[in-house]
Every structure is written in structure tokens, then in C-alpha cells.
Specification:
EC number: 1.-.-.-
CATH topology: TIM Barrel
Family: Belongs to the FMN-dependent alpha-hydroxy acid dehydrogenase family.
CATH architecture: Alpha-Beta Barrel
Keywords: Flavoprotein, FMN, Oxidoreductase
Shape: globular
Number of strands: 12
Cofactor: FMN
Protein name: Alpha-hydroxy acid oxidase
CATH class: Alpha Beta
Oligomer: single chain
Low-confidence stretches: none
Strand order of the largest sheet: 4-5-6-7-8-9-10-11
Number of helices: 13
Order of helices and strands: HHHEEEEHEHEHEHHHEHEHEHEHE
Structural class: alpha/beta
Length: 364
């Protein structure tokens, strides 16, 4: 039977994956209230369609930080794609190339930066955490530039890893045959050892992430790369303004998929204030809870320049490898174009707040 929606890929992926791997992918932090709120927040908006508009040729393409995309959709940075498919990030890179979407490779990718770049036919960015070892960070940046990556995405909402109860209960550790191959194995040793009540991922982050990072440190990174710098994990107008002041080229409104501070704002609730706080030309990206092309349209109407998708891509990868991931991305793109047509807004510039009606919501 054909899988026609991300929710169908979700069910199929869950049936295929080991329980602890599924929990690592699906879970959030704490009581998972923010994880649930990310999904629920889309229900606070209804679409306002216009009629008798020429929608014979809807165009969702755009240029983002100098890269051309066929749709305003990208794959959010996620670790260890080989947990769900033997080809890992190489398969994901081929899928984004086929669909004209963006791939943000994670610092904990399970294929080398060079292998991912060789497989990618479309734009490719690299996500970083701020490590205690700045020499390692600098080396990754140098490799990314040499391999043709077009931007750096610094995750700024993880001075420590959120308390993810599913991983703690499972004593989750990365399997021995799956490694963060772009980092020295000694740096990653803790991630491969977990016990009941202790997550290898959490132990590794505590050892390797630098919790003393401040806005002033961004200058060090800017000095070492000519690539655009994107800050991921912005949820407030205050931090959005500081990002602009400190030379960021874009931000991602994100609560880490509900995996960091439980009880934090749903990303969609934070999006309007961030958009309103930055100059009109400054790109604001979005992630958190996107499960359909209509969800993409809502985020774009609230001011996002592009939308990143996480878990659904891993579901597609788990079910069908490259083809499955490409099918999920194609579904989201085609659903977005379908939504634009029925909304009477055939161009992305027409997707503004006038396309939405706000319902009474919990987070206002």
C-alpha cells in the first residue's frame, strides 16, 4: 500500500526500528509537553482562502543565502542517520538533491562531510555545537568550506542536553557500528556507553559541549570562516535582535523539536515575535512540528523564509532509504503547492499573515 502522508511513514518506521532507537528519535525532554505543543500549535490557525485568482502556475521556489531551492523546505540537522538506514546521510543528501530542498548535515553525522557533499546535488549546510575543543571546531569549519558547504548553522539552545526520559529509561547509547565519523573517536567514547538511568548521549554532551558560550564568542567563529552564520534555537525577540547585532546572517526559530527545555514556547508561537524583531530582509527559518504542506504554508505566512523538517525525513529514510526520504520531501512540497493554489496565493510573497485567521490559543 502506498504511503501518502508523513503519519503513515511514522507508523511504518516505528514497526521497523528497535524500540530504543525509536524512542531516541521520537522522544522529547521532560514530560514532553513542548513536543506535543509544537504539533498542537498549528491548530490555532485557520487558512483564509481567496478565490478567482489565477493559480495555473504556483511557484514555491526561492533563493536562500545565495542558494536556489525548488521549495522553501529543508532537512533539519539530526545526528546519526545510519541509525535508520545503512547509507545514512548520503541517502538523505541524494533525496534532497532529487527534490530541490536543503540539507543541513549534523556535526554528529554518521557519514563523512566529504561523502555527504559528494552525494549532494543541492545546497548543503553544516550544523555545529560549540565544543570545548575549539581546535576541533575550527577543523570542522575548514573541512566544510573545502567540501563546498554553503553555510554554518550553530545550535545555541544546548549548553547542556535536555533530560530525555525515554533515553534515560532505555540507557540509550549509540550502537558500536554507528559513529560520528567526523570527530575523533575518543571525543565520542561516552556516547557509546549507556546504562539504565543514564544516557550515553547526555554523558557525552556534558563532557564535550562548552556551557560557557556567550554572544561575544561568535566573533571567534566569524573570524575563521567566510560562510554565512545561522543561529539555530532562537525563541525570543531579544535574542533575535542580538543575533543581528552580532553578525548572524539568519536565525532558525526552534525549540530543538521539544528535546531541550520542556515547557518552552512552541516554535510556531515564537515565530511572529522573532520575525517582527529583525529587519525585513533578514532570513528567519523555522522548525518544530511540521507534518504537512499546510503546516509549511502556515509557518511561511507567519514570516518564515523557509521551513526545516526533522523526524518525518528519518521516518521516510527508515522505511525506504533514499526513495522514502525523497517521497516525504516531495509530499511536503506538493502539498505546499496544492495549499497555495487553494489559498489563491500562487507566489510565496503572497503568503503573509492575511492568509491566516487566528483562533483563541493557549500561548498568547
Amino acid at each position: 500500500m502506498a504511503l501518502l502522508a508523513p503519519a503513515e511513514f511514522e507508523s511504518a518506521a516505528r514497526a521497523r526500528l528497535p524500540a530504543d532507537v525509536w524512542d531516541f528519535i521520537a522522544g522529547g525532554s521532560g514530560a514532553e509537553s513542548t513536543l506535543a505543543a509544537n504539533l498542537a500549535q498549528f491548530g490555532d490557525y485557520a487558512l483564509r482562502p481567496r478565490v478567482l485568482v489565477d493559480v495555473a502556475g504556483c511557484d514555491p521556489s526561492l533563493t536562500l543565502l545565495g542558494s536556489e531551492l525548488r521549495a522553501p523546505i529543508g532537512v533539519a540537522p539530526m545526528a546519526y542517520h545510519r541509525l535508520v538506514d545503512p547509507e545514512g546521510e548520503v541517502a538523505t543528501a541524494r533525496a534532497t538533491g532529487r527534490t530541490g530542498t536543503l540539507l543541513i548535515a549534523g556535526i554528529f553525522a554518521s557519514r563523512t562531510l566529504e561523502e555527504i557533499s559528494a552525494a549532494a546535488e543541492g545546497p548543503l549546510w553544516l550544523q555545529l555545537y560549540w565544543l570545548r575543543r575549539r581546535d576541533v571546531l575550527a577543523g570542522l569549519v575548514e573541512r566544510a568550506e573545502a567540501a563546498g558547504y554553503r553555510a554554518l548553522v550553530l545550535t545555541v539552545d544546548a549548553p547542556r542536553i535536555g533530560r530525555r526520559l525515554r533515553d534515560l529509561r532505555n540507557g540509550f547509547a549509540v550502537p558500536a557500528d554507528v559513529r560520528a565519523v567526523n570527530l575523533d573517536p575518543e571525543l565520542m567514547r561516552a556516547s557509546h556507553h549507556g546504562d539504565a538511568g543514564a544516557s550515553g548521549i547526555e554523558t557525552h554532551a556534558r563532557e564535550q559541549f562548552d556551557p560557557s558560550l556567550t554572544w561575544a564568542d561568535l566573533a571567534w567563529l566569524r573570524e575563521r570562516s567566510r560562510l554565512p552564520l545561522v543561529l539555530k534555537g532562537i525563541l525570543t525577540a531579544e535574542d533575535a535582535r542580538l543575533a543581528v547585532e552580532h553578525g548572524a546572517d539568519a536565525v532558525v526559530v526552534s525549540n530543538h523539536g521539544g528535546r531541550q527545555l520542556d515547557g518552552a514556547l512552541p516554535s510556531l508561537a515564537a515565530l511572529p515575535e522573532v520575525v517582527d524583531a529583525v529587519p525585513p530582509e533578514f532570513p528567519v527559518l523555522f522548525d518544530g512540528g511540521v507534518r504537512s504542506g499546510a503546516d509549511v504554508a502556515v509557518a511561511l505566512a507567519l514570516g518564515a523564509r523557509a521551513v526545516l523538517v526533522g523526524r518525518p525525513v528519518l521516518w521516510g529514510l527508515a522505511v525506504g532509504g533514499e526513495d522514502g526520504a525523497a517521497q516525504v520531501l516531495d509530499q511536503l512540497s506538493s502539498e505546499l503547492t496544492h495549499t497555495m493554489a487553494l489559498l489563491g496565493r500562487p507566489r510565496l510573497r503572497g503568503l503573509d499573515r492575511g492568509a491566516l485567521s487566528e483562533r483563541a490559543g493557549r500561548y498568547r
